[in-house]
Design goal:
Strand order of the largest sheet: 3-2-1-4-5-6
Strand content: 5-15%
Shape: elongated
Radius of gyration: 26 Å
Largest sheet: 6 strands, parallel
Helix content: 25-40%
Distance between the termini: 36 Å
Length: 383
C-alpha cells in the first residue's frame, strides 16, 4: 500500500520556514507538492538557476509563475481547479490583492482546501505588522516563561512558533479539512497563526501557573531550570549531560551514579532552600569526568541522565534520521540517502513541468510557454 497522502495535490506558494515545513510534512507522507516560485529569467530554460533560500524542499517540484500578471494568475487558477490544497504563507489580504481570494477559488473548485498561515492573528493589534518567531512567542506570553532566572527571556531558535505552532499546526489543520471533506465533499479555508499555535502548545505551562509546578518567576520552577535535578551540566571535556530525574526512583539512580549520599540528597530535595547547594554539588561532580565516562555510567539505567549530542557528532556517527510517525499499514516515505543532513535545495522551475504533465498531460511548447521568466498557458482563451 502506498503512503497515506498519495494522490493529494498540494500547491505551495513559495515562502520560508513555516509553510514550507507544512508542505514538507505532506510530501514526506505521499502528497505531490508543487511550489510556485516568482518568475526568474533562467527558469524553465537550459541555464542553471540557483536554489532559493528555502531548505525544506525534498520531494517537491517547482514552477515559476508571475502572479502579478493576468496570464500567470490564470495558469495558477487552472492548476488549482484540480488541486486539493493551497498553502498560503502571505500576510492577510495578499491573496485578495492578487484576485485569488479563497471564495473565488472555491467557486471553481469546491473541494479545494485553502490553508492560510500567518504569524500574528488575522485581526487585532498586530495583524498588519511584520514579525518573526521571536515576536509571535513574545505576544503569546510563551517567551516570558523561557530562560534563566538571572537573564532575559530566551527564544530557543525558531523552533516553537515557526515550526511547531506554525507549520506543524498548519499541516494538522489541512489533515482535519481533508478528513472532513470525505464526509461533506467540500473543501474549506483553514486559518492558523503562530501566536495561537504556540500558545496552545504552552497550555500546560499556562495552567501550571496556578499550581506549585510553575507558580514562581521564570527560571525558578521545576521544569524551566530552577530545579537541580532537571538541568544541564558541563563535563570535564566541555561537553554536557542532561538530567531529568524527576521521580524519586529515578533521582535515586542519578545520585547513585554520581556517588553522592542518598540520605543527604533526598533531604535537600525536599527543601527548596537547599537546591542551590545541591546544584553546586552536581556541577562539581559532573566536572570530574568527561562525558563519555558519564555516558558509560548512566547508559542502561533509569537515572534520566543522557548526553547532549551535537548535530555534527550525530552526523559523523551515522545517526539514522527518521520520519516522526510510523503507520503500520500505510507509512510515509523514508528519507532519501544524503537528504537526512543536507538539503538539496530547489531551483525555480525544477521538476515542475513533469508534475504538470503527470497531472494534466501538459507539455512545454504545446500547452505551456515562458514569458518574462514565468510560465503561462499557450492558449489563455481556453482557461
Amino acid at each position: 500500500m502506498g503512503p497515506p497522502l498519495q494522490g493529494v495535490r498540494v500547491i505551495e506558494l513559495a515562502g520560508l520556514a513555516p509553510a514550507p515545513f507544512a508542505g514538507l510534512l505532506l510530501a514526506d507522507y505521499g502528497a505531490s507538492v508543487l511550489r510556485i516560485d516568482r518568475p526568474h529569467p533562467s527558469a524553465h530554460s537550459q541555464s542553471p538557476v540557483q536554489p532559493t533560500a528555502d531548505l525544506l524542499t525534498h520531494r517537491k517540484a517547482s514552477i515559476a509563475v508571475d502572479l502579478k500578471s493576468p496570464d500567470g494568475r490564470a495558469l495558477l487558477e487552472n492548476i488549482l481547479a484540480e488541486a486539493d490544497v493551497l498553502l498560503d504563507p502571505f500576510r492577510p489580504g495578499v491573496l485578495e490583492s492578487l484576485q485569488l481570494s479563497p471564495s473565488r477559488l472555491s467557486e471553481r473548485n469546491p473541494r479545494l482546501v485553502v490553508a492560510r498561515l500567518t504569524g500574528f492573528r488575522r485581526d487585532g493589534q498586530y495583524a498588519s505588522m511584520a514579525g518573526h518567531d521571536i515576536n509571535y512567542l513574545a505576544v503569546s506570553g510563551s517567551l516570558s516563561q523561557l530562560g534563566r532566572a538571572e537573564g532575559v527571556p530566551y527564544a530557543p531558535a525558531n523552533i516553537l512558533a515557526d515550526f511547531a505552532g506554525g507549520g506543524l499546526m498548519c499541516a494538522f489543520g489541512i489533515l482535519l479539512a481533508l478528513f472532513e471533506r470525505t464526509a461533506s465533499g467540500k473543501g474549506q479555508v483553514v486559518q492558523n497563526n503562530m501566536v495561537d499555535g504556540v500558545s496552545y502548545l504552552g497550555s500546560m505551562m499556562r495552567y501550571a501557573r496556578k499550581s506549585n509546578l510553575w507558580d514562581r518567576p521564570r527560571g525558578q520552577n521545576l521544569l524551566d531550570g530552577g530545579c537541580p535535578w532537571y538541568d544541564v551540566y558541563q563535563c570535564r571535556d566541555g561537553a554536557y549531560m542532561a538530567v531529568g530525574a524527576l521521580e524519586p526512583q529515578f533521582f535515586r539512580q542519578l545520585v547513585q551514579g554520581l556517588e553522592l549520599s542518598e540520605t543527604e540528597m533526598f533531604a535537600q530535595r525536599e527543601v527548596r532552600a537547599s537546591w542551590p547547594a545541591m546544584r553546586e554539588q552536581f556541577r562539581l561532580r559532573f566536572l570530574e569526568k568527561p562525558r563519555r565516562e558519564w555516558e558509560s555510567i548512566f547508559d542502561g539505567t533509569d537515572a534520566c541522565c543522557t548526553p547532549v549530542m551535537d548535530m555534527q557528532e550525530l552526523e559523523e556517527d551515522g545517526y539514522d534520521q527518521k520520519l516522526p510517525i510510523h503507520l503500520q499499514i500505510s507509512s510515509g516515505l523514508a528519507l532519501e540517502d544524503g537528504h537526512a543532513w543536507t538539503s538539496p535545495g530547489l531551483s525555480p522551475g525544477t521538476g515542475g513541468l513533469d508534475i504538470l504533465h503527470h497531472w494534466f498531460g501538459w507539455k512545454m511548447g504545446r500547452d505551456l510557454k515562458v514569458t518574462g521568466g514565468g510560465l503561462i498557458k499557450t492558449d489563455t482563451s481556453k482557461l
